């Protein structure tokens, strides 16, 4: 799978805007936002979003709390906010 900067930024924006309490968003919540945004069509977005969440973690843009295999929690880091602002 190829890296997609636009998708990475969109994921960070979802986490940033949907996380009202500061506790991050679960993978299922992030995928739910994308399903709604793209009219439940997804078109294979789930693997791409999950892959990019992994890339965002390894880049230090999100902090991941491992809850269980399918529903980890993702919180924005300072670097993640900087990435949004720069792009």
Name a few traits of the molecule.
87 residues; mainly alpha; three-stranded antiparallel β-sheet; 4 helices; globular
Could you walk me through the main structural features you see in this protein, from its secondary elements to its overall organization?
- With 87 residues, this protein is mostly helical.
- 55% of the residues lie in helices and 11% in strands.
- The protein contains four helices and three strands, in the order αβααββα.
- The chain has helices spanning 5-18, 27-37, 45-58, 78-86; strands at 25-26, 62-65, 73-76.
- Strands 1-3-2 form a three-stranded antiparallel sheet.
- A hairpin with a 7-residue loop joins strand 2 and strand 3 (73-76).
- Helix 1 (5-18) crosses helix 3 (45-58), helix 1 crosses helix 4 and helix 2 (27-37) packs across helix 3.
- The longest helix has 14 residues, at 5-18.
- 21% of the residues are buried.
- The mean pLDDT is 89.
